């Protein structure tokens, strides 16, 4: 199975178009940011707590954590809606993946990590990068916010690849009688 057959260069992360970005923004306007955030935080707590942990830490590091967290939650919601339309779940970030991405960011240095992750996002999901850039450009700490988006995206992307490899390994595993998979 090629990376294209697995969902693209980023594993199973869906490509984002402007339509989903507009839908999430409209939901925030019509339903209200408090109600949307409550629903998103419940979703994240139940289904992707390590994403939530990373998003909260990144928002706290930047300051104005409620507003910044709403951007990270919208980012997740856009990806979640696109994945749902394709009948696939978003990856659930594991502690191991979270720690590996954080270590990589530490080894590269923040600015280099953001540069590399932003280039990856541009190559794999330009619509999502446009959303992140638009959100971050309205705030004082552009680099800090983009670092948060980059960290979150790379964590989801890495987890998608890891999960995809696990599925491939299961498909190639011998059956109960030790015969090679077909």
TrEMBL record:
Originating organism: Sphingomonas japonica
Protein's UniProt name: Uncharacterized protein
């Amino acid at each position: 199975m090629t990376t294209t057959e697995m969902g693209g260069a980023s594993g199973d992360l869906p490509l984002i178009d402007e339509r989903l970005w507009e839908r999430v923004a409209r939901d925030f306007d019509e339903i209200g940011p408090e109600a949307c955030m409550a629903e998103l935080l419940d979703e994240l707590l139940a289904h992707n707590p390590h994403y939530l942990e990373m998003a909260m830490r990144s928002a706290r590091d930047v300051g104005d954590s409620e507003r910044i967290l709403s951007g990270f939650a919208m980012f997740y919601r856009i990806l979640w809606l696109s994945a749902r339309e394709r009948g696939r779940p978003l990856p659930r970030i594991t502690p191991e993946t979270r720690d590996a991405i954080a270590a990589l960011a530490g080894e590269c240095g923040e600015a280099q990590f953001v540069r590399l992750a932003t280039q990856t996002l541009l190559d794999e999901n330009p619509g999502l990068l446009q959303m992140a850039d638009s959100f971050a450009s309205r705030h004082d700490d552009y680099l800090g916010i983009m670092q948060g988006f980059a960290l979150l995206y790379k964590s989801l992307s890495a987890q998608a690849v890891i999960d995809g490899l696990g599925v491939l390994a299961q498909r190639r595993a011998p059956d109960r009688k030790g015969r090679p998979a077909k």
